[in-house]
User: Fold this.
Amino acid sequence: MIRRIPSGGTYEEKIGYCRAVVADGWIFVSGTVGVDRQTGEVSSDIAVQCRQALDIIEEALLAAGSGFSDVVRVTYMLPDRSEFEACWPVLSATFGDAPPAATMIECGLIDPKYRIEIEVTARVPQR
Assistant:
């Protein structure tokens, strides 16, 4: 069984994807950028964007019955790899004692205002 979890984000309908897909005990969360969910504004601060992206990801994980401790893989995509270090405290606080395997890629993002995009894969916890 496959379950789709949309977030209603701007690009989901335009591009044709959803925030997360749950399939065979796995949760695949699409690349997520940071945006203020109340105002739609994008901060110029990369650490703020990182936190906001993680908040959106957490909503999807919770909707799938999971959380950050169930994340097994994370990919960080940044247009400028030199900015990644500013995100480390946010990431360390988020993943804490259950750090996933991780990759950081320097690449272009869909809009230059975005400074980080985060994608995760998690397991649905066994209960």
